[in-house]
Amino acid sequence: MPTASVTSSLPVLVIVHQPTSTPGRVGEVLQALGFALDIRCPALGQPLPTNLDRHSAVVVFGGPMSANDDHHRFIRQELAWISLVLAAEKPYLGICLGAQLLARALGATVAPHPTGQREIGYYPIVPTAAGQGLWPGPLMVYQWHQEGFELPQGSQLLATGTTFPHQAFRYGQQAYGLQFHPEITTAMVNHWTTEGADQLACPGAQDRPYHLSQHRLYAASVDRWLHQFLARWLGAPAQAEAVWGQHHALHHHPTAQGTTTLHLGQPPKLEIG
Asked: What is the pTM assigned to this prediction?
């Protein structure tokens, strides 16, 4: 996995799509690595920077809108702005909608599953040959989406799935798109499956008890993967073990975990991203 050359003295720019959104576990790991977070919500009219001289990297999270929603001015803005991030050669990480926006900005199609299936719950992803450096083997990850992306021209497919075959890709050296949600916490799973309960009846969705039981089983392994991925993505591998010790303690602290109240970009009745 190529690593970026960044400095923790510059914050990571975090793009969210709702006023209630938070960066969840991703934000916690970034802060543990020593990065401040500059959180902005273009959907609320907050501006995107015209250059990235004051930021070390960019993370774009999910939301209930589609990457194809050109009637939203902020979607059009973000699609155009991603080209600026890529031209600046800053590390980019897109999660769910953020990955779909990256794919579309690179000319790929974003669309629902042809048979109407969704991934809502825990599903396995499997590394490709190009992704072996990121995933030593299959990983169970949390998903909540009805749309997927085609693989952009010139990119590398890193992980695949059964229902939505394109689960992770890399473009260039530092731009990544992940269809799944590594930022999820127990509090988020509880909130999504309660407030978005109507979505659990959609084709392919899993029921609430399964979400909760699978999260208990697989959250720790996703956490381990996430901290290693983010440390290497930002060029901080030497800090990985120390960060994991702090991160693991936080993950198992019920009070700290309960402070995260809402999954990023995942409101009640979420349809996509």
From this structure: 0.86
